[in-house]
């Protein structure tokens, strides 16, 4: 079958049988939420100037955003199991819109940090409900569905940060972030209108995180090498957040690029993900976790090894493109976890894994910022490449059949 025919088949499977409206609403809102989150690294130089932040404190601001994005995922998963994916996703979207309005009016650094934490908490309500909804809509194509929605996330991260940078340069950084709030209000209305009402019904999920529920989740965590793959996910989140949190700042302060050029190069990183994530998700559906994960991580090892050594825009474009396939990791590991848990505790199980890994991984930006403050910006990227190499070695140790389809 040709590539075009294969793409057409996947598109018909995702959008046919009345699934187009909920899919577009879920994916479009996800792209807007992630695009809003990735505006932060682009605006860090403005935050540093306005509030007098050092590199390490600026990294801490991004860590607070990621930490907030992690902490609500377990409650969000429990709510998705017990109540309504539609209600949970809509509520999270509205909270982010309100929190962004608070960020752009922040009178002090302390207020900025508090409002940023609220942005993260609102975003944390969305991911697990999104996955459980997609698992219900696409029980046999979760990899493709999740990969496609994650690609729209990268589309948002590609398009919105340079728009924000341009608006910030022309008007003010507050306008560069604030324009997202009305978009999220529209997205919340679209979610409520498009998602099926059946999602509001109790489907027999857990009522609360009781002892019995915890026992069931822990029992499933012991199956199919889930703990090892969760550790791999943690390492990936740690390095991904460290890289994305300070990459535009690195390009400006260490490579001498203009802020607008740095934001475009940052967008290129996510633009590649628009292609990589659907391919990675579909590959997972066909060959399983191990080899699909190794395939998307091999190039980034080389990219991070040479990044501190290259100069000039063409070379930086090439290295950024070489690093970008790491974005496919999320589509692969999250598809695996969706398959690993039974329907009755899928949201709770995903919430446990995502909250634990993302909470620990949120330390990445502040740790990386601390290294940069001490003069080890370049060496930090070599460290990231080394951690990715460890992830590859751990992935290859997964026994045949574990994580495979």
TrEMBL record:
It holds the Pfam family MFS_1. Keywords: Cell membrane, Membrane, Transmembrane, Transmembrane helix. SUPFAM superfamilies: MFS general substrate transporter. The keyword Transmembrane applies. The chain crosses the membrane at residues 20-40, 52-72, 93-119, 163-195, 225-244, 256-276, 288-310, 316-337, 349-368, 380-399. InterPro entries: MFS, MFS_dom, MFS_Efflux_Transporters, MFS_trans_sf. It is a multi-pass membrane protein. It is found in: Cell membrane. Gene3D superfamilies: MFS general substrate transporter like domains. Residues 1-403 form the Major facilitator superfamily (MFS) profile domain. GO terms for cellular component: plasma membrane. This is Nitrate/nitrite transporter. The lineage of its organism: Archaea, Methanobacteriati, Methanobacteriota, Stenosarchaea group, Halobacteria.
